[in-house]
Amino acid sequence: MAKSSATKDAQALFHSLRSAYTATPTNLKIIDLYVIFAIFTALIQVVYMALVGSFPFNSFLSGVLSCVGTAVLAVCLRIQVNKENKEFKDLPPERAFADFVLCNLVLHLVIMNFLG
Asked: Fewer CB atoms < 10 Å away: N or C end of the chain?
């Protein structure tokens, strides 16, 4: 009987999360997809390294750190662009996107320098 209660609780949780996410604006959903893509790319690189090997370890670290760094910056962009976030209400979305692009440029310059 405890399993059915836990299953019902899990189903209720997933239903409430799904209904709340349907109210999310489209631009935030696009950023969410970008974050998922970046993390998925990092996971593919880790699996590839585990299967094949990591001979140029600098390249492996650069690729994974690039993906994770990009995902972190995208999460920061999502926080700044979200209309419900009161902390960044005076920040225009264009400024948040410009910050995202500039930080990505700096991140990838550092990553390219790390490659050697």
From this structure: N
